[in-house]
Structure formats: C-alpha cells, structure tokens
Amino acid sequence: MKQMPGMFKGLGVTAKTMLRTLFPDGLRKPIPQPTKGAHTVQYPHEKETPAPRARGVIALHTENCTSCMLCARECPDWCIYIEGHKALAPPRREGGKPRQRNILDRFDIDYALCMYCGICVEVCPFDALFWSPEFEYSEPRIADLLHDKERLSDWMETVPEFEDYEGGSEQKKRAVPKPVDRTNPMAATPREQA
Ligand code: SF4
Ligand code: SF4
Same structural domain for residues 22 and 56? Predict the structure, then answer.
C-alpha cells in the first residue's frame, strides 16, 4: 500500500501529458490535435541534429588498421569481416632485414546485424575506429547494409572532433585522424608493422 501515492502521482503525470498532447490549445480550442501536440519529430520532413558523439555509424581509418582482428573477435554479433595478408617491405636501413607488414584486404561491417554496442570502437588498440553521428544510410535491400572498407573509410569525413573532457580528467583527448588523399598512393599506405 506504500506504493499507492507514487502510483497515483505517476498516473497523474501520464494523464496530464496525454491531455496536453491531445489538446495543445487547452480550453481555448478543445478539439483533439495530436499531431500538433506531439513531441515527436515528423521525420523525414523535420530532422533533429544528433549529439556529436551519437552512435550513428562506425567509420574506419584504414591507415591505422593493422588487421589485428581484435574488433572482429570481440564483436558480440560477429558482424565484422576482416581479411588481410602479410607482405615484406624494404628494410629501413641499407643492409637491414626486410620488414613484415599486414595489408588489409577486406574490412566489412554488416549494419543489418550490428547492435551499436561500441565494443569494437573501444577495443581497437590503434585508433582505427570512430563513431560518426550520421544515421541516414537505410537501404531498401538488407544486403546493402554491409559497408565495405571504402564506404567505412568515407564515413571518416563525418567524424566530429572530440570535445574537451571535464576539468580534472586524466584521460587524454583523442584526435580524429584526417582523411587521406586517396589519389596519393604513398599516403594510402597501410600502417606498417615493426
Ligand atoms: S558496435 Fe558492437 S555489434 Fe556493432 S560492429 Fe561494433 S562490436 Fe559489433
Ligand atoms: S580496426 Fe582496430 S581492432 Fe579492428 S582489426 Fe583494425 S586495428 Fe585491429
């Protein structure tokens, strides 16, 4: 019985909100106008600006990705598909040993399966994944929700800069890498493995 006052208070708030939604002009015009009184946004005619750190879509900075597979292994939905191969790069110094580096061949995220948990972004040790607030990428065909390496890289242009953390935070502010000029083959070289 102790819960009764709280329950009636809650019901009162619900009733008040319902009446305000149905009759936004109150007693001046007691005709139900739910479209006018509703607080929902009439998308796509009206659009809200999402918060800068909203989880809209995941962007991939391919140049930082070492194909370590950590994100794919940690993804609870198994919706990240990575393929790569090893290649030898010339030695840094004359007479040195050739270096081994990982080349990223495939990096896909299936947004038909993704649940936007953000684990992949959190676990990436090389700052290759970032959240972008972009959310308008619905498709008539579910298969088209599989974003490949190029499409995920294109999202990098929509990743906003990180805001300052609260005063006293020991966390270092992350920097968003600048998109690479893809017409320059040297700039598009994947991150090399030591
Ligand atoms: S956000 Fe979560 S579900 Fe989506 S790809 Fe990343 S780890 Fe997987
Ligand atoms: S995105 Fe990050 S965690 Fe995933 S394979 Fe690339 S470097 Fe590894």
Answer: no
The CA 140 to ligand 2 mean position distance, Å, reads: 29
Domain count, the chain: 2
Best mutation site among 60, 119, 145 for ligand 1 pocket (most ligand atoms within 8 Å of CB): 119
The predicted model scores a pTM of: 0.76
Instruction: Report the half-sphere exposure of 171 (CA within 13 A, side-chain side).
Output: 10
The rounded Å distance from CA 145 to ligand 2 centre is 20
Short-list 194, 106, 96, CA closest to 146: 106
Q: Which ligand is nearest to the CA of 56?
A: 1
Per-residue model confidence as pLDDT tens digits over 67-115? 999 999 999 999 999 999 999 888 888 888 888 888 999 999 999 999 9
Do 166 and 85 lie in one domain? The reply is yes
Sequence-ordered list of residues with C-beta below 8 angstroms from that of 89, at least 6 positions apart, any chain: 98, 99, 100, 101, 192
Q: Both 25 and 78 in a single domain?
A: no
Q: Which domain holds residue 33?
A: 4-37
In a shared domain, residues 19 and 111? no
State in Å: Cα 69 to ligand 2 middle.
6
